[in-house]
Predict the 3D structure of the following.
Amino acid sequence: MTATWPADRLVGLYCQMYLVRRFEERCLELSRKGLIPGSIHLCIGQEAAAVGAASALRSDDLTVATYRGHGHVLARGIDPRAAFAEVLGRQTGLCKGRGGSMHLTDMSHGVLPPNSIVGAGLPIATGAALAQLHKGADRVVLCSFGEGTLNQGGAHEALNLAAIWSLPVIFLCENNQYSEMTPAYQMIKGDSFATRVAAYGMPTTKVDGMNVQAVAEAVAQAVTRARNGEGPSYVEADTYRFLGHYQGDPGTSYRPVDEINYWRARDPLLLLAAQLSAEAGMDMRLKAEEESIEVALDTAQQAALDDPLPLRDDVWEGLYAAG
Ligand SMILES: Cc1ncc(C[n+]2csc(CCOP(=O)(O)OP(=O)(O)O)c2C)c(N)n1
Ligand SMILES: [Mg+2]
C-alpha cells in the first residue's frame, strides 16, 4: 500500500461502506418481518472489498457480482430506492420486482445481471470482456466471487480463456473463509487459491480485505493493466462475513466464537473510522455523514415500501419465451 490517502477521499469510501452496511441491516429487518420474498445473502463485514474495488472503476466499466452483491451494486452508484424496491419485489425495482436480492441489475450503471449459480459469473465476465475487445472499447470488467467458486469447473475455463486472450477482466476473489458452512481450508489441498490462478498465467495479489484503501489500490493496478491491454489479473481480498450465509443461518454453529470476534475487531468501518479519528473534528464529521445517509435510506426504504407490487396481468412481460 502507498501512503495513506487524504482524509476527504477516505471519508467518501467510509460513507459508501456505511451506506452498504445500513442498507443491508435494513434488509435483514425487512426480511425478518416477512417483507422480502426469498433469500438474502448479506455482505456485512465485506464492505471494503466491494467499495474499494468499485472506487477503482470508471463509470462506464462493467461489474459482474453474485447473489452476495448488494455492496457491489450500491458502490456503483445505483439508487438505493430502486435497490430496496427490487429486494422487496416492487414494480419500481431495478428488474421490475422480478429478480429480487440476488439479481440486482442496472446496465445504465454498468451492472450486469448477477445470479445465484456459483461460478457462473466468471464466464459471463470473460464474455463481456471479449465483447469490449471486439468493440475496440477500453472498458474493463470487474468480476467478484467467493473463494468456494474456485472449485467450479466453469470458473477455471473462464480464467484460462481470459488469460490466453489477454482480456480486460479483474477477477476479485472475496475470500470470506467459508463456502456456505464449509471452511476454505477443507476445500483445497494446500492453502492457496491464488497459486492455482497464477498457473493460468496472470498476476495474482493478496490484499487485506478489511482495508478499503488496500483493496482500492490493488484493484486500481489491475484496472490499469486491463485497460492497457495487458490482460486479466486476480486480486484476493481476505475478509469475513459477520453474519450467516443467508438470512436464515445464524452463522455460529460452524464458526468458532474466537474467530468471529477476531474478524469483528477488524470491521472495515471501525478500522477506517479509527484511522480517520486522528484528524481534528473527524468524529463529528463522520457522525454527520452517517446521519444524512440514515435520512436518505429512511426515505428510500419508505418509498420502496409504498411502491406497488407487480400486477398479475404483467406476468408475461419481459420474458423471451411466449406463454
Ligand atoms: C453451481 C452451484 N453449486 C452449489 C450451489 C449452492 N451454494 C450457494 S452459495 C454456495 C457457497 C459459495 O461460496 P463462495 O464462493 O465462497 O461464496 P460466498 O457465499 O462465501 O460469498 C454454495 C455452495 C449453487 N448455488 N450453485
Ligand atoms: Mg466464501
The domain at 7-304 is CATH 3.40.50.970 (Rossmann fold). DSSP finds eleven helices and seven strands in the chain. The two ends are 55 Å apart (CA to CA). Residues 7-32 form the longest helix (26 residues).
